[in-house]
Design a protein that fits this description.
This protein is an alpha/beta fold and 448 residues long. Helices cover 33% and strands 20% of the residues. The chain folds into 2 domains: 5-94 and 254-446, Alkaline Phosphatase, subunit A; 118-249, no CATH class. The protein is built from 16 helices and 16 strands. α12 runs parallel beside α14. The longest helix has 26 residues, at 332-357.
Length: 448
């Protein structure tokens, strides 16, 4: 393994070693998630959806031989986010386990959280203060470069670091604020929903927490004079003149795949949210060079990394962000291309690789949610999924992998997190979760 770096983040799960081995119906499992692949019928495509229009022989093959159905990944009342949808897909009920985006990103960044800590996603933003009002000029400070952002965050961090606060630099405008022993109740808003808008009310809400507000005002004074911003202003770029914390929560309490299913697992994903979900679920996080979370991602590198990981692991999850990005851009051609590349360079090679390995296997393919190009944002509703089992192929000769084909299926999983149990094919062990304890110390009350 020369081109794949691995971070071993799974905590030890020693106590599971004393339990009887679980009997799994397949020897390998692969989950392939095409973020935001699901779409609506489009007039320019003669009323077809993008999945119907795109050439996807690998996924169609799975649909012909597998179980095609629909799964509701976002429970009623939850925001239409990738964090919630992917949490369901990997088998954890958002109603029970969702605490916010912050703690997922903290885990992906390798930041340790204690039960009393609160993690905020913290954007570098451009605010404009005018006549007593505050405006969100840019939620990303002009997609500031990681290098510039690190100078700002790393210079500020020692000035605001205390027993209470830790500020951690991430990628581009995406950083993390850890408030040790902090409250989680404050009501924050995601800055990308307010581009160009008056955010005076949202800004004043931070005043409810004087310690946090003091940190934010310190940051404004400090960033104003910082050389990085002087340079950005001179170049006509928006200065990163403020921090905007949001999406906060305490650490989620997950039983791991090893505790639940006796399964050793890994995740291949470029996006911090998914990597963070993997960390909390006890998966090994695998880095793939050139995996960007964008349209130009290294599709084939992800498939190869998954197949290498499968030599040791029982289950590997591969997540590809590109279809979602194309959907947000409202770019039909790019969305078709992203789905075709996902099919050809990820689904196909993974199918071939598993067949060549010789043992039994199951593959699950699904989008996490809708990102219709006509809406340029996430949409609601159950998404299509297919589960292929090499030991018992089905015969749906006319099926293809698409939304309308899945609608023909009688199978509808209303509680999305239950799909994982169906996929793996065993009842998970019951784990008594104690928020005061680490993942590895949770008690398994009903072995299986
Ligand atoms: Zn998503």
């Amino acid at each position: 393994m020369t081109d794949v770096n691995t971070i071993n983040v799974a905590e030890s799960t020693d106590q599971t070693q004393d339990l009887p081995k679980m009997e799994l119906p397949a020897s390998k499992y692969v989950i392939l998630i095409g973020d935001g692949m699901a779409d609506l019928p489009i007039d320019d495509l003669g009323g077809k959806t993008v999945l119907e229009k795109a050439r996807t022989p690998a996924m169609d093959h799975l649909a012909k031989l597998g179980e095609l159905g629909r799964v509701l990944t976002i429970p009623d009342g939850f925001p239409l986010g990738s964090d919630v949808a992917n949490m369901s897909l990997i088998g954890y009920s958002p109603k029970k386990f969702y605490t916010g985006r912050g703690p997922l990103e903290a885990a992906a960044m390798g930041i340790q959280m204690n039960p009393e800590d609160v993690a905020f996603r913290c954007n570098l933003v451009t605010l404009r203060f005018r006549e007593g009002r505050v405006y969100m000029e840019d939620y990303s400070a002009g997609h500031i470069s990681t290098e510039e952002a690190h100078m700002l965050i790393e210079d500020l961090a020692p000035l605001v670091a205390s027993r209470s606060f830790g500020l951690f630099a991430g990628v581009s405008y995406r950083h993390l604020l850890l408030w040790r022993g902090g409250p989680e109740g404050i009501s924050t808003v995601p800055p990308h929903d307010f581009t160009g808008m008056d955010v005076t009310e949202a800004w004043h809400i931070y005043e409810e927490e004087p310690l946090l507000y003091e940190l934010l005002t310190k940051a404004i004074t400090f960033f104003h004079r910082h050389a990085v911003n002087e340079k950005r202003r001179a170049e006509g770029k928006p200065p990163a003149n403020a921090l905007w914390p949001w999406g906060q929560g305490r650490r989620p309490l997950f039983a791991t795949f090893s505790q639940l299913y006796d399964i050793d697992s890994a995740v291949v994903a470029a996006v911090d949210l998914i990597r963070g979900l993997g960390v909390w679920a006890g998966m090994e996080v695998i880095n793939v060079p050139g995996a960007t979370g964008y349209l130009d991602t290294n599709y084939r590198g992800k498939a190869d990394a998954a197949l290498r990981a499968l030599k040791e692991k029982t289950l590997v999850l591969v997540h590809v962000e590109a279809p979602d990005e194309a959907g947000h851009m409202g770019n039909l051609r790019e969305k078709i291309r992203a789905i075709e590349r996902f099919d050809k360079e990820v689904v196909g090679p993974v199918m071939d690789g598993l067949r060549d390995m010789g043992g039994s296997y199951r593959i699950l393919v699904a989008p996490d949610h809708y990102t219709p190009v006509s809406l340029k944002t996430h949409g609601p509703g159950p998404v299509p999924y297919v589960i292929y089992d090499s030991l018992s192929p089905k015969d749906n000769s006319d099926a293809t992998f698409s939304e309308p084909a899945a609608e023909q299926s009688p199978i509808m999983i209303k509680e999305g997190h239950k799909l994982m149990e169906r996929f793996i094919g065993v009842t998970p062990r019951e784990v008594e979760l104690n928020p005061k304890k680490k993942a590895s110390e949770q008690k398994i009350v009903r072995p299986n």
